[in-house]
Design goal:
Elements lengths: L9 H21 L3 H20 L7 H21 L7 E3 L9 E5 L17 E3 L5 E6 L4 H7 L10 H7 L1 H5 L5 E7 L2 E7 L8 H6 L3 H14 L2 E9 L3 E9 L1
Helix pairs in contact: 1-2, 4-8
Length: about 250
């Protein structure tokens, strides 16, 4: 199978840069003066280092987006078929829940009732077998798990959480993140999340991995159940307005 090469890929850029350093080094070394020879050897070594060491390949952005879109589309269809109207509630771990979950209620209310949820349940029903909602792993949980290899989101205050979330900016997952408390609500503003579908309705029920991983991190760090009240969106930013459910 022929390998797809793109000049936008970091490892290709590194090879081009490395070859450029080597060519410059050879030109300097050709002069054979002591100074130019040292500069030439230095450029050649730097070029070889760039080519050999920076070899991580990335997939094209459209392919990465397609890989994300598939599972999100499946969940979206599930929500539509079950006629779920409630907004997402991000649940931290507890005695019966070993990893974070998103609960999507059947109906949207200001104070939704949250049943006991564990990681084995998907379809949540009441005592008379009527539907209450569904419980799913957050779409951003795998992403958060990867990032937590460097920074763990342990129980702390919002100011500290915002500082820890700067890791998402360093990894180019988002351009900026800002957290504020106003009128007993938490406002989480994210600028340019990667691969965000900008689907206002769906984002309130099952956010994309970039947004979801941040909301999951906040729920984990605060140990609070966070209910998406609404979102505000434009082309560059998305703001989640969250309430804390006791």
């Amino acid at each position: 199978m022929r390998e797809h090469w793109s000049i936008k890929q970091p490892h290709i850029k590194a090879k081009i840069l490395g070859i450029s350093f080597i060519i410059i080094g050879l030109l300097f070394a050709y002069n054979q003066t002591a100074l130019y020879l040292k500069i030439g050897i230095g450029c050649i070594l730097l070029g070889l280092f760039t080519i050999v060491m920076i070899t991580e390949k990335t997939i094209p952005e459209n392919i990465g987006n397609a890989q994300i879109k598939g599972p999100l589309t499946a969940v979206k269809q599930l929500i539509i078929q079950l006629n779920l109207k409630g907004n997402a509630i991000f649940l931290p771990t507890n005695k019966i829940l070993s990893e974070e979950r998103v609960f999507i209620p059947l109906k949207e209310t200001n104070q939704p009732k949250i049943p006991e949820v564990d990681e084995e349940l998907v379809f949540i029903t009441g005592s008379n077998n009527t539907s209450i909602g569904i419980s799913l792993p957050p779409s951003g949980l795998p992403l958060l798990s990867e990032l937590e290899k460097e920074t763990e989101f342990n129980q702390t205050d919002l100011a500290q959480i915002e500082e820890q979330l700067q890791q998402f900016i360093a990894k180019d997952i988002i351009e900026s993140v800002n957290i504020k408390e106003k009128n007993n609500l938490i406002h989480v503003q994210l600028k340019k999340p990667v691969s965000c579908p900008q689907d206002t309705l769906f984002c309130t029920q099952y956010p994309c991995p970039a947004c979801s991983s941040i909301l999951t991190a906040i729920a984990k760090a605060t140990q609070k159940r966070l209910h998406i009240k609404k979102i505000n969106q434009n082309k560059k930013t998305i703001t989640f307005i969250l309430s804390i459910l006791e």
